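Table S2 (text version). Query chain:
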Amino acid sequence: MHTMWKGTISFGLVNIPVKMHAATENKDVKLRQLHKECQAPIKYERTCPNCDREVENDEIVKAYEYAKNKFVVLDDEELAKLKKEQEDKAVEIVDFVKLEEIDPIYFEKSYYLSPGEGGGKAYGLLRSALEDTGKIGVAKMIIRSKEQLAIIRIYKNTLVVETIHYPDEVRNVQDVPNVPEETKTEEKELDTAKMLIDQLTTEFDPEKYKDDYRTALLELIEEKKNQDEVTTTAEKPKPDNVTNLMDALEASLDRAKKDKPKTKKKTTTTRKKKTGT
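Corresponding structure-token output:
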């Protein structure tokens, strides 16, 4: 499993060297966009509207737009230094809370933690302490150039880091339109609804839930492949250097002929010889 981050997690005087691994993966079926006419993949190029040309990666800088069309430019060295200063800090658990006190709307992404070199004993200590107290740790850490609020909990005998949103990243629920304050519900309707909930209540088993759309889409793709309903994009032929050279020579010759000033033809006169008598 790929290690995406190495660091130290501390609580009190206990320091735990750890490695972090992505716990989830995106299995969306990615579809490309083709030009309907020739079936070639559509390209998205980075262009400068001011210079009216495509720009290379080494011509691009990062900036923060603090007002309309007003930017503060930040160079790579400044950002790298700032990132290193934060990454070198130990991830300190600042609080311990109960998991049920955090609403699921705050949760973002999950990462597995494995002990680093010599960190097995301290790793086990934190895991046992969390398990016995039924608590989770709250910490801050830098992931991909962003300071993240995170919790540390146990999942199937493994410590897990769960990044969570800051409060100002969760939109105000009061801004949701057309939510009724109170509704009058008939008792019979409510009883029927509760009865339905009771009938559908079961223990959560994640293995029973499948992505039906993704499965159907993959089946459709496989069916089209088997029926040879495929398209191959013909690569754009690369210009031949010899042809280019001949074209250039011929074009140069034509231009030279056009630019060459016309010379006047010399007129010759024939003198008659005098004949003696």
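Notes on Table S2: Helices lie at 76-87, 120-133, 187-200, 212-226, 241-259. Residues 54 and 265 are 52 Å apart (CA to CA).
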